[in-house]
């Protein structure tokens, strides 16, 4: 194990939460994941689901870990929805790497209940549909599919 890796695990706030070294508001735990309230509470019930295995981001998941972690999301999401009957929807977000707004470098999935259009939360998807030709779209798809194993 490299020194850099050892330091990152030792200093990982989510590893410390999982190991009960730092308190959290736990909502769910099993052998694969630990779910707890995000302290920011963008909306009431905002929950983080983290794999117990330390992985930095989605790029470090293998298929088994992905199955373990992502199979828990619906169960936790339904529990949040049931706990908050005025919940009208939910955003499920997973930011990967700094440019994509990842701020804690232990993979985590945000479950953000939505109550109204006035919630203090927004996502903007730019629409560049008219900027790419059919051949450019085909080339982009081919570039991705060519790298799949």
TrEMBL record:
One Gene Ontology MF term: catalytic activity
A Pfam family this chain is assigned to: HIT
Catalytic site positions: 108 (tele-amp-histidine intermediate)
GO biological process, one term: nucleotide metabolic process
Annotated HIT domain residues: 13-123
CDD domains: HINT_subgroup
Positions occupied by motif Histidine triad motif: 106-110
UniProt-listed InterPro entries: HINT, Histidine_triad_CS, Histidine_triad_HIT, HIT-like, HIT-like_sf
Name by which UniProt lists this protein: Histidine triad protein
